[in-house]
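User: I'm putting together notes for a lab meeting next week and I want to include a structural view of one of the chains we've been expressing. I don't have a solved structure, so I'd like a prediction I can at least talk through. The sequence is below, exactly as it appears in our construct file.
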Amino acid sequence: MNNLITENYLEVIPAYGRDYKNGKDAKAAFLSGRDFQMQSIHHGGGYVSVSDFAEGVVVNVRYRKMQGMMPVTVKRSAEFLQKQAHTAAIVAPWPPVNPFAVAGEVVETEDEATASRASEDTRQQKEGV
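Assistant: Thanks for the context. Below is the predicted structure for the 129-residue chain, given as structure tokens.
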């Protein structure tokens, strides 16, 4: 939970073409962790959710085809925090980190290396090498 957004009154709109008919539904969706898109030049218009904002920050959530706006204060329930901690504990980095890789080098995974060797062996058998 590092690098949380601490600015107040940033505007977000529902992501992926979603829309909400009223502020109550939009607020519930935002606080439940649904994705929204940032409408700020400073934050690049990326996708965000409640987990990206610091506790207590006020976010303006748009709804009804961007005609309505509901200020929402970021609050996280104990259930949300527990779920987030559990998810963070089981998520492993992908692709797996190779400690022997040189910066910028593309490294095959074990499955890719096995498939590559098998196709190389097949090619050599066809060529009679």
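A couple of points you could mention at the meeting. Residues 110-127 form the longest helix (18 residues). The beta strands are 10-14, 36-38, 47-48, 58-63, 68-73.

User: Perfect, that's what I needed.
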